[in-house]
Amino acid sequence: MESKYRNFSKKTIPYALLVLFAPFILTDDYYHSVMVVAGMHAIVVLGLCLVMGLAGQISLGQAAFWGIGAYTSAVLTTKYGIPPIAGLVAAAIIPGLFAFVLARAIAGLQGYYLAMATLAFGYIVQIGIGEWESVTGGANGIIGIPPIGFFGESELGMYYLVWGIVTILLIFSLNLVHSRVGRAYRAIHKSEIAATSMGINVRQFKLSAFVVGGMFAGISGGLYAHYMGILDPQPFGLHESILFITMVVIGGMTNVWGALIGTIIIEVIREVLIALSHVIPELKGDIDTIVYGAILILIMMFMPEGLVPRIRAVYAKSKASKAGDVQPKPERGEVA
C-alpha cells in the first residue's frame, strides 16, 4: 500500500508542476484559451475513462451529458439569476440524474446494443435542446451567460479554475480505481457473470459508473457555458462524443493518466490541423473528423491497449531485460 502511494506522488508532482507553470511557458492568451478548453475536455474524458475503461460500459452519448450540464447552468444563471457557482453545482447534479435514469433503463444491455442505446440518447438530447425553444433558445441558443469570475475573469484565472477542478477529479479517479468500488468495476469489465457469482451487484455498480461519468461531463459543460458566454446545440452531438472516445482510446482506456494524456495529444493535433488549414485551404471543414476516425482505427488495430499502457509495458520490459529478469505478462485490465 505504501509503495502504491509513493508511486502516486511520483506521478502527480511532475503533473502539478506542469499545470502550475504551463501558462508562464506559453504566455499568449490564445494558448491559455486552448489549455482551458483542453481542461474542460479532460474532465469529460476522465469520466468516460471510468465508464468505459474501468467499468467496461460503452457510451457514445457523453456529449449529451456535456450539453445538459452546459444548458442547466446557462438557463439557471441567465433566466433565474442564480450565481454561476450554484449553476455549476446544478450542472453536476442534473446530468447525474439523467445518467441515473438512462442507466436504469438500459441496465440489461451490453455490447453493440448498449452502444446504440447511448447513441440514441445523444441524438434525443441534441434534438431536444434544439426544439425546446422556450427554455434553450432552440437553434438561436442562449447569449449573455455570466462568467464565473475567478481571479478577475481573465484567461489565466479560468485556466487555474478549470485545471484545479481537473486535478481534484483526477485524484478522485485515481483513488476510485484502487478502492473497493474500482475493483468491482474491473470485475464487471472482465466478466459480468463472474462478477455476479462473486456477489457483486452488477446493476448497481454499472449505474454508479454512468452517474459518475455523467456528473463529470456536466461539470465540464457548466464550465464551458460560462467560459464561452453563448451556447447553441451544435457542439453537443455525435462529433464531440467521437472526439471524447478518441481521446480515451489513444491514451489508454484502462489508464486514468492515459485519458489525460490522450486529451492533450488530440488537442495538439487539433491545433496543428487549424494551423495547416491556413496554409492548405482543403483542410478546412470536417477534416478533423476524418483524422480522428483514422486515429481511432489505427489505435484499435495496432495498439488496442492505448499509448500509455504500451509505453509502460515497453519500459518495464527494457528495465527487466537490463536486470536480466523475465518480464511477466502485463494485465490488460490495469487502470493505474
Features:
single chain; transmembrane; disordered N terminus; 0% strand; 336 residues; mainly alpha
How would a textbook summarize the main sheet? none
**How far apart lie the N and C ends?**
13 Å
Tell me the fraction of residues in β-strands, as a range: under 5%
Shape: globular
Total helical elements: 14
> Into which percent range does the helicity of residues fall?
over 70%
| Total count of domains | 1
Low-pLDDT runs of 5+ residues are 1-7
GO molecular function, one term: branched-chain amino acid transmembrane transporter activity
Subcellular location: Cell membrane
Pfam families: BPD_transp_2
Organism: Aneurinibacillus soli
Protein described:
This protein is mainly α. The chain has one domain. Helix content is about 75%, strand content about 0%. The chain has 14 helices and no strands. It has helices spanning about 1-25, 30-55, 60-80, 85-105, 110-130, 135, 155-175, 180-190, 190-195, 200-230, 240-250, 255-280, 285-300, 305-325. Helix 1 (about 1-25) packs antiparallel against helix 7, helix 3 (about 60-80) runs antiparallel to helix 4 (about 85-105) and helix 11 crosses helix 12. The longest helix is centred in the middle third of the chain and has 27 residues, at about 200-230. The protein is globular. The two termini are about 15 Å apart. The relative contact order is 0.16.
